[in-house]
Amino acid sequence: IALNASIWRSFNHPEHDLRADAARVNVPALLIWGENDPVIPGEIALKVVKIIPGAKLVLMNTGHSPFAEAPEDFLKHVTSFLESLP
What are the helix (H) ranges across the chain? Predict the structure, then answer.
């Protein structure tokens, strides 16, 4: 529990702000986000996808873990994305 708490607290540190790094991503990127995420709200996804050049966003009707909450749909989105790559 202490380790988990310290990891979550660390996200508030300025050195964990990766927005500048995200803007330099130069490979295809797929963001799959849970619309009902109680930890990182879906509105954040709309901001993140604008930062990463050419990123694609899928909002799923899940919470924080789309891959675990709706694995078949998650895999469908990942597979479609991968198949779309040159």
Answer: 2-10, 19-22, 42-51, 66-69, 71-84
Residues facing residue 85 across a β-bridge: none
Reduce the DSSP state of residue 71 to 3 states and report it: helix
Rounded Cα distance between 70 and 72, Å, is: 6
Q: Which of 54, 42, 48 is nearest to 19 (CA)?
A: 48
| Backbone CA torsion sign across 81, 11, 47, 54 | negative
Which one-letter amino acid corresponds to residue 77?
H
Which tens digits make up the pLDDT trace of 33-82? 999 999 888 888 999 999 999 999 999 999 999 999 999 999 999 999 99
Predicted local confidence at residue 75, as pLDDT: 98
